[in-house]
Model the fold of this input.
Amino acid sequence: RPHTMALAAEAKRIAADFEISDTDLNKINLEFVQQMKEGLAKNATNMSQIPTFVTAVPNGTEKGLYLAVDLGGTNFRVCSINLHGDTTFDIVQSKVAIPKELMVAKTAKELFSFLAKQIELFLREHHEDHFNAHIRRRQTISTPEGFRDEHIFRLGFTFSFPVHQIGINRGTLMRWTKGFDIADAVGQDVCKLLQDEIDILKLPVRVAALVNDTVGTLMARSYTSPGKTSTLLGAIFGTGTNGAYVERLDKITKPMDGEFDNSTGDMVVNTEWGSFDNSMKVLPSTIYDQILDQESVNPGIQMFEKRVSGMFLGEILRIVLVQTLKTPAVSLFSGLEIASTAPLHATGGVDSSILSEAEADSSADLSKLREYMKTSLGVSAATVEDALAVKEIAHAIAIRAARLSGIAIGAIILETGRLNPGASAVPAPKSTASIVEDVKSLNLAEAASATVSKLANTAGLAVNEDEIVDVGVDGSLVEFYPKFEEYMREALRTLDGIGAAGERRIRIGIAKDGSGVGAALIALVAAKME
Ligand code: ADP
Done:
């Protein structure tokens, strides 16, 4: 079967195009650290490094009942979160679709009064007691809102559009995205727009914090992570990719307009790392990446994101397949009828979940993947050879994304010096399963030392919580792509300054319900500063 040979060889060649050598991995990492520094010093063209005015992260002992709302796209979510103070919480949520006509309303008031109304409905359903407590207890009115202070909900407002933040609960809308278009909102403080409508309805609610979803992830993880160690970094690998981390205030040397409490000496910085290396100094770039960029709505922008996030990985695969179809000698999908309306032929038509399906199917005939290709690509009756080629290319695209993600995490850890002295090189405890693996692979020295540290740990000795660098992650890619974390870790071990010993000290955990709990925690931090 000469055809099969040609296809297999071509898939191999394409996969190799997506490889990042260990040398390049280190080079990209150094540049990442460099561009982080530039963003702290000035308004840079690559990573924005936006100060968030959040000056502390939680340690799990925080308590209280808070509200959080999230406006980020098609839905508006309202939730109340009860933080128990022991790293656990309860959450009550509601979700409503934003009516299309409000997304393009004439005035901001139309949208924000709708949002306030949803908050009222939520409170009437779940927290009616907060409305009438002051009447029932015959308390004198003690706040401008007419409620006793302890009955006023502090609200964290997650608003996932570009804002120029000028305080923990102040930020002006720069522009709408994602199908919203309400001209008179641009330039206005979105917290004030929401508060004004809340006040008209006389709700016991104060908008305490304006929240970026990545910062929410960091806060949520820091609250829920085991032990007292606070989290260094929150990272999202979903539709987009971004990270927020705890930076030393004295390293943020660019001008900041806004007031904040500087007693901790820290501030959370929203990196906007999706724009790392927009100037394309070091990022890998295949012909397929270039086609994707040219066909995108924002060529030259979000260049890191275009190689890493869920919105683009399926599209890279689609472009590779379309380009390969142009070489008949390779005979991909040979003799198959593919409709012109198939997802394979539609820009943005192929979801990244096909990468996970391809990775997960290790059967000899790839029957699951071939089945999935029917709907996700619109390719029926693909051969095993076709599916093998798709699997190999998808794998290469995903590994590159995971290695680049590892670089982002590694760069934050290196730039903040979290693995440096003070911190000795005591590894975090290994899982029993991984000790068994070490024994099986005859890595006896490793197994012995891990066993010793595990025993010591069980006895309450050794392995200091301080040695752990905690990272919170969220997003479908890291959650559902098989072994995404493992591939990130492999990259971390390869980085100079981290290595195997450093990588072992990095604890990565999923931050569940990040936007709700995170927003609540930021509202809590903000309320303390009132
Ligand atoms: P968001 O980032 O919008 O909050 P998600 O974290 O769910 O939401 O990410 C959605 C993105 O993840 C989409 O771009 C989708 O293509 C991608 N995705 C969804 N499921 C998977 C999967 N199983 N494997 C890889 N990517 C996935």
In short: The first helix runs from residue 2 to 17.
